[in-house]
Amino acid sequence: MYKYHCLNPIAACGLDLFTENYEKTEDVKEASAILVRSAAMHDMELSDNLCAVARAGAGVNNIPLDKCADKGIVVFNTPGANANGVKEIVIAGMLLASRDILGGIEWCKENAADENIGKAAEKVKSKFAGTEIKGKKLGVIGLGAIGVLVANAAKHLGMEVYGYDPYISVKAAWNLSRDIKHVSDVNDIYKECDFITVHVPLLDSTRQMINKEAIDMMKDGVIILNFARDLLVNEEDMVAALAAGKVRKYVSDFANPTTAGKEGVILTPHLGASTAESEDNCAIMAVEEIMDYMENGNIKNSVNYPACDMGVCASASRVAVCHKNIKNTISKITNTFGNADINIANMVNVSRGDYAYSLLDLETAVTDAVLEELKGTEGVLKVRVVC
Question: CA dist 114 to 105, 106, 123, Å?
C-alpha cells in the first residue's frame, strides 16, 4: 500500500486515477508521495518515507530540489499540461494592452445611469480605441511548451513572430511554425519587437533579465508581458519605464505592491494556469508520474533526477537506487548483488549532474540483508524495492 498526501487541493479527476493500492493520508510524515501546487516546501521536514514529490504545474520554485535530491526524493513537474491555458491568457493580455478594453468597460460602468449613454459613447470611444496586433512584431523569449503555443497562435493572428531560446528542445522545434523567425541573440528581440513576452524558468541567469538595460534597448511604446515568473522582471525599473513613456503597457500575472495600481500596468492575480482544464490536466499528469514511479520505478518529467524508463515491472524483483554521480558506485551496487548470488537480468543507469539513478531487474527476490548493504554503500541516497 502506497500512501500519498496533498499539500494543496488537487483535482479529483487526477486523484481518482489512484487504484486501491493507494491511500490518502493527512499525516505528511507517513506519505511515500506528495502532490503539491503552490505550497512552500522549503522549510518542511522531509520524512525518510518520502520517495516522490509531484508538482501539479511547471514551476518548482516552492520545492527544495537539491534537498530532495540529497534524500533520494524524485521531484516531478507537469510541463505542457497547463500550456494552453497560459497561451490563451497571454493572447488576451496582448489584446487588452493594445486596445483599452478595460478602460472602455470602466467608462460604461461609470456612466450606466446616463440615459444617453449610447450617444455619449460615440463621443469618447476614441479614448479607448488603441491599435491592432496584426502586423506587429512579437518577441517570444523561451520556446518551451507555452512559448511555442504563444508563438504559433500569434502567427495565426497575423503577427510577425521572433523566437529566442538557445536551449530549444527537438520536440519544441518540431512543433514550432516554420514561419517563426528564430534569433540567436535576445538583444535582437529587445531592439526589434513591439510586443515582448517571457516564458523562461527562473534561474540565476534569467533573474531580472528584463531590467533598465534591456528596456533601454527596446522600442518606445513597447508592450511587455510576463506570465512566467515575477522575478524575471525588475519591476521597479518597469514602473520607471512606464512613467517615462518608454513602455506603453506592462501586463503581469503576479500581483505585488510594486506594480499594483500603477499607471500602465495590467495586473491579474496569477490566473495563467488557473483554468479548470489546466488544473485537471496537471492533476492527471502528476498522478500518472507518481504511479509509474512507485509501481515501475520509471522517471518521467523529473526536475532533479534523470529520465529513466524500463517499462512495466515484470521481473522477480526490481530495485531502484538513487545515488550520487560518483565513480565506482555502479560496480559496488552490482557486486553486492553478485556476492549475494542474485543475478541481474536487466539494468539501466542514468545520471544528471551530481545525481544518478539505477534501476535493476533481478531474477530472484532481493533479501533485506542485501538491501541494508546497498543502503550503506558510499554515495547511495535511497534504495527501494519496486516489485
Answer: 15, 14, 14
Rounded Cα gap, residues 372 and 370, in angstroms: 5
Per-residue pLDDT of the chain (387 residues; tens, 9 = 90+): 999 999 999 999 999 999 999 999 999 999 999 999 989 999 999 999 999 999 998 889 899 999 999 999 999 999 899 999 999 999 999 999 999 999 999 999 999 999 999 999 999 999 999 999 999 999 999 999 999 999 999 999 999 999 999 988 888 889 999 999 999 999 999 999 999 999 998 889 999 999 999 999 999 999 999 999 999 999 999 999 999 999 999 999 999 999 999 999 999 999 998 899 999 999 999 999 999 999 999 999 999 999 999 999 989 999 999 999 999 999 999 999 999 999 999 999 999 999 999 999 999 999 999 999 999 999 999 999 999
324, 52 Cβ separation under 8 angstroms: no
Alpha-carbon distance of 193 to 176, in angstroms, equals 19
Question: Quick one: the chain helix, strand, coil %, rounded to 5?
Answer: 35, 20, 45
Q: 162 near 191, Cβ under 8 Å? A: no
- What distance, in Å, lies between the first and last C-alpha atoms of the chain? 12
CA 180 to chain centre: 23
Distance CA 92, CA 138 (A): 14
Predicted model pTM: 0.82
What are the CA-CA distances from residue 70 to residues 292, 324, 381 (Å)?
21, 8, 7
Cell of 250: 506592462
- Burial of residue 127, with CB atoms counted within 10 A of its CB: 0-12 exposed, 13-18 middle, 19 or more buried: exposed
